[in-house]
Specification:
By secondary structure, the chain is an alpha+beta fold. It contains eight helices and eight strands.
Length: about 200
């Protein structure tokens, strides 16, 4: 599409500046710029559990949207982060049925949570990228990779501690803990448990 740039989800991190919020990092599919967007905890959770392929006990709002759209034979083509005004991002969900095409206004966090459920691409207007994106140098990339891989001492020790404690449990116990974590909607713990179960299978 003209004047748009395709993005991919690079990660989610808790936002120390704003309690209860997260920063969603989007990166150019072909380029080094990254677009950070601050989103709420619920939307961050909705994006994370779909990426991790964790099935919640109850459908979340974005799952409901997908069921609704599927039953009425609508499909999501792509989402577009279309504008940025006074630091606030705006997005559109581009849908179609056999009869018509529709643009639905949405917050970027909701639009992206829906996009991952439909496996739909994410685009951003070039003007928004020019205004809000951050271009990473090779040094920044290296530092981010070290952070993401847990090479920081605190992160590494915490991850090792969590993995060691999970290894002490039997497979049956891990499956019980996974069910409980999903029931409690603790999806971060559920993801760790699922990874440990997958390692043993």
């Amino acid at each position: 599409m003209d004047n748009t740039i395709e993005l991919e989800i690079l990660g989610l991190s808790s936002n120390s500046a704003q309690s209860g919020s997260f920063t969603l990092i989007l990166g150019e599919s072909e380029g080094k710029r990254k677009l950070p967007i601050v989103i709420g905890m619920f939307e961050a959770q909705a994006i994370a559990i779909e990426i991790e392929k964790i099935i919640p006990n109850r459908p979340m709002t974005h799952d409901l949207f997908k069921s609704f759209a599927s039953n009425f034979q609508f499909s999501v083509d792509h989402i577009l982060i279309s504008d940025m005004r006074e630091g606030v991002f705006y997005a559109k969900i581009m849908c179609h049925s056999s009869f018509k095409k529709v643009e639905i206004d949405a917050r970027p966090s909701d639009a992206i949570a829906i996009a991952v459920r439909f496996d739909a691409p994410i685009f951003c207007a070039s003007s928004v990228m020019a205004e809000a994106a951050i271009e990473f140098t090779e040094e920044d990339e290296k530092r981010e990779q070290e952070s993401a891989s847990g090479t920081g001492k605190g992160t590494r020790e915490k991850t090792k501690s969590q993995e060691a404690s999970l290894k002490d449990f039997s497979l049956d116990k891990l499956n019980q803990m996974l069910e409980k974590a999903i029931s409690n909607e603790d999806y971060e713990k559920a993801a760790r448990l699922r990874d440990e179960i997958n390692r043993r299978n």
